[in-house]
Specification:
The structure holds 2 protein chains of 2 kinds.
Chain A (H helix, E strand, L loop, with lengths): L2 H14 L1 H39 L4 E6 L8 H5 L12 H8 L4 E6 L2 E8 L2 E10 L13 E2 L9 E5 H8 L12 H8 L3 E11 L2 H7 L17 E16 L14 E4 H7 L5 H4 L1 H4 L8 E6 L5 H10 L2 E4 L2 H43 L1 H9 L4 H44 L12 H27 L3 H6 L2
Parallel strand pairs in A: 4-9, 6-8
Antiparallel strand pairs in A: 1-10, 1-11, 2-10, 3-4, 3-7, 5-8, 6-9, 7-8
Helix pairs in contact in A: 1-14, 2-12, 2-14, 2-15, 5-6, 12-13, 12-15, 14-15
Chain B lengths: L21 E14 L2 E14 L3 E5 L6 H9 L6 E6 L2 E2 L5 H10 L1 E5 L10 H11 L4 H14 L15 H13 L5 E5 L7 H18 L2 E6 L2 H7 L2 E6 L2 E7 H19 L1
Parallel strand pairs in B: 3-8, 3-9, 6-7, 7-8
Antiparallel strand pairs in B: 1-2, 1-4, 4-5, 9-10
Classes of the chains: A alpha+beta, B alpha/beta.
Chain lengths: 471, 267
């Protein structure tokens, strides 16, 4: 029998027992809806997590360190390659070289130092980190009270919440509710801080010669061997422009600090860095040496290539791409579990289809006998029952997807109403991608065909003589 | 009754009753069933042959095995032993698929209880064998209309069987049986559920199909008078065995002798 005839007969047969077939189809729809609802929740949560993680700037960042640092992130990297002393130095020229690597959007030095900040004449010792302009678009500064830096060289500061509390003498007691950032911002925004820091200043050759002791070994002939610098105490006035609620101990690269300066400003200050002691001859030059450089890559997918390219240049690299992979794996497992729970309802629907079709065989036993007597083959009868099961599957699948989508929208709406009441921004927890729609309908179709397998075979093997005797 | 025309007239079966080639050859046919510990011999060593274009009636009392023989010839059932050879094909050796194809193209069947599908209209019932035969949809409407017109049901095409009389249902069943132009028409008690006037009407149609189209007809009946009126040969079965196989003239003569003997005995 040709497909159009098969479909036509299947549909008209389904219409004959409308109530029973409709109820079976509703059963399939509920099963598919539950599957779609569960999977779209899993996908939605995964996308939400991915969005958040992407916005955090963690997954598209590679931290580059010199192999001259004896305690790199990766000991395996330390063991391979040249000895630390012979390794390349991480300086401005190298930073520029890294920016030329394809898919690198930005490479900036990590400037971080511990120094004294004075507020209302009271000294506070703290860690200061320099932020590039691009940090503005990461989610870390989404909830900043006040503003981000007005420019990359502006004498401005953003304070971490706990440091702001310290400045105001409001250290919260354990167990009490945390202080609202907005409350801290009001008295601090626009106020002035004084930063005292150690500035590195290159010395002239005559000054070096004068200060050399008689026992000093004669310098080698290269220009850098006799270099020197002075460490001078300086002060810089900073205006507080923002307060941000960040965890200073987190792995957020440049945001590991309790007070932040614009990167451009931090670079011009020539603040003494820990590497300056080891790279004394270079630190005195106009080209500073960096302890690490953060490299932003266009997308997490490119991180591996960029890491490889930087390693080839002779540096150690670190990214948390592996952590990202673990998260992806977690969501895959979560999806499987949600899919299994969602499929339980479909399993019930499966039994419903088998029941409906077996009942149909009993009811239509004589009809099957007649069809066989007038020339229907076993495969005609089998395909007819398959077509009926498949038609219920497709219809149930389509209705189920719509139902699942509607449930998702309703829960999304309800959750966002709740989030709004709790003063959180709205989120999209639910996602029904087009492939899930196709998958759900196809899955429903295949499950229905599988359910029709036994009844269809049974109908096909029916003895026509016995079937014709059936009243 | 309308004259027979259209596709049926062009049917490939045009052999006359005189043609010696048997359309159906049944050899030592047995069909045994087991019912618990009892072996039922529904058909027990029947041998017969039917020539192409012949009209044969299978007669016998209830349980004599006549319907079982018909089902075996129709390819609805398989023999326990023996063979049914139709147009040089041994039905016992055909696969299920080939047997279905044989029922679709070679055999047309009518039943006592009409066996129309209740949920379909007459047109849909008549169209059904053409769906299985994969005949183009474009041609089917005309063929259905022609077949139903031939049996005088053109005005009832869109009625369901439950809306028709028994005679009309059997006429529709005849139209369905002939729609794929079969060579054999097998009728199982075609008038069993009809009054005598409607029964005669149906038998006239079957007789006309036999005469005009040269179709081979095997009819199961327990009505001897009906068989004598329409069939060319009567085959009597009892307890699954063939007890008598005689031409209509011999049957009528023996019937007359039987009746005379009965009359004499009564006197």
């Amino acid at each position: 029998m040709k497909l159009p005839d098969l479909t036509e007969l299947a549909v008209r047969n389904l219409r004959e027992s409308l109530l029973r077939n409709s109820l079976t189809t509703v059963g399939i729809s509920v099963g598919v809806a539950s599957l779609v609802a569960m999977l779209s929740l899993g996908i939605g949560l995964q996308q939400l997590a991915s969005r958040r993680l992407m916005k955090s700037g963690l997954f598209d960042t590679v931290v580059v360190t010199s192999r001259r640092d004896l305690h790199g992130f990766n000991r395996e990297q330390e063991r391979s390659g040249p000895a630390p002393g012979e390794s390349r130095i991480l300086d401005e020229s190298t930073r520029l070289e890294i920016t030329q690597i394809p898919n690198v959007t930005e490479a900036y030095p990590d400037i971080r130092f511990i120094t004294e900040l004075r507020y209302e004449d009271k000294p506070h010792l703290t860690t200061i980190a320099a932020l590039p302009d691009s940090a503005k678009s990461t989610d870390a500064f989404d909830t900043v009270q006040g503003n981000f830096f007005s420019s990359d060289t502006a004498p401005e500061a953003i304070l971490q919440k706990t440091f702001a509390e310290e400045l105001l003498g409001r250290t919260p007691k354990p167990g009490l509710d945390e202080t609202n950032v907005a409350e801290l911002a009001a008295p601090l925004l626009g106020k002035e801080l004084t930063m005292r820091y150690a500035q590195r200043e290159a010395q002239s050759p005559s000054a070096i010669a004068k200060s050399a002791s008689p026992n000093t070994v004669s310098p080698a002939k290269d220009d850098l061997s006799s270099a020197a610098y002075s460490v001078i105490s300086r002060e810089q006035k900073l205006k507080i422009v923002g307060i941000v609620d960040l965890d200073p101990e987190s792995m957020r690269g440049p945001t590991r600090g309790r007070a932040f300066l614009p990167l451009g400003l931090a670079e011009t200050l020539h603040v003494m860095q820990p590497t300056d002691l080891r790279e004394i001859s270079r630190a005195a030059s106009s080209q500073p040496v960096y302890s690490s450089v953060s490299v932003h890559v266009k997308s997490p997918g490119q991180v591996q290539n960029v890491e490889d390219a930087i390693k080839k240049m002779g540096f150690n690299t670190f990214s948390i791409l592996d952590a990202s992979r673990s998260i992806q794996q977690f969501f895959k497992v979560l999806d499987v579990f949600l899919g299994i729970f969602g499929s339980l309802a479909l399993a019930v629907a499966f039994i419903g289809i088998v029941n409906t079709l077996v009942m149909a065989i009993l009811e239509r036993r004589r009809e099957i006998g007649i069809m066989k007597a007038i020339g229907a083959s076993d495969s005609d009868v089998q395909r007819l029952f398959f077509a009926e099961a498949g038609a219920m599957g497709i219809l149930g699948g389509v209705v189920g997807v719509a139902l699942g989508w509607a449930i998702g929208q309703a829960i999304n709406f309800g959750t966002n109403v709740y989030l709004k009441r709790q003063s959180f921004p709205p989120e999209h927890f639910w996602s029904v991608p087009w492939w899930l729609v196709l998958f759900a309908v196809l899955f429903s179709f295949l499950v229905s065909l599988a359910a029709g397998l036994y009844p269809a075979r049974r109908a096909a093997r029916l003895d026509p003589v016995q079937a014709l005797r059936y009243e | 009754m309308k004259s027979i025309e259209g596709p049926i007239r062009n049917a490939s079966v045009t052999e006359s009753p005189a043609n010696a080639t048997p359309a159906i050859q049944v050899n030592q046919l047995c069909r045994h069933y087991r019912m618990g510990d009892t072996l039922i011999r529904a058909v027990d060593g029947v041998t017969l042959s039917v020539k192409a274009g012949e009209f044969v009636a299978l007669l016998g009392t209830s349980g004599s095995g006549k319907s079982s023989v018909l089902n075996l010839i129709a390819g609805l059932d398989r023999p326990t032993s023996g063979s049914v050879i139709v147009q040089q094909r041994n039905l016992s050796e055909l696969s299920r698929q080939d047997l279905a194809r044989y029922r679709l193209h070679t055999v047309g069947m009518v039943f006592q209880s009409f066996n129309l599908i209740a949920s379909m209209t007459l047109a849909e019932n008549v169209e059904l064998p053409m769906r299985f035969a994969e005949i183009d949809r474009g041609k089917r409407d005309d063929l259905v209309r022609g077949a139903l017109t031939r049996v005088g049901l053109q005005a009832r095409m869109n009625h369901r069987p439950s809306e028709l009389s028994g005679g009309e249902q059997q006429r529709a069943a005849l139209a369905r049986a002939l729609i794929n132009r079969p060579q054999l028409l097998l009728a199982d008690e075609p008038t069993g559920n009809l009054d005598s006037r409607t029964g005669t009407e149906i038998m006239n149609m079957i007789g006309e199909f036999n005469r005009q189209l040269g179709m081979t007809v095997v009819m199961v009946t327990h009505e001897r008078a009906l068989a004598e009126r329409y069939a060319q040969r009567l085959i009597f079965l009892a307890d699954g065995k063939l007890v008598r196989d005689e031409s209509i003239s011999a049957a009528i003569a023996s019937n007359a002798i039987d009746r005379a003997r009965t009359e004499e005995e009564r006197r």
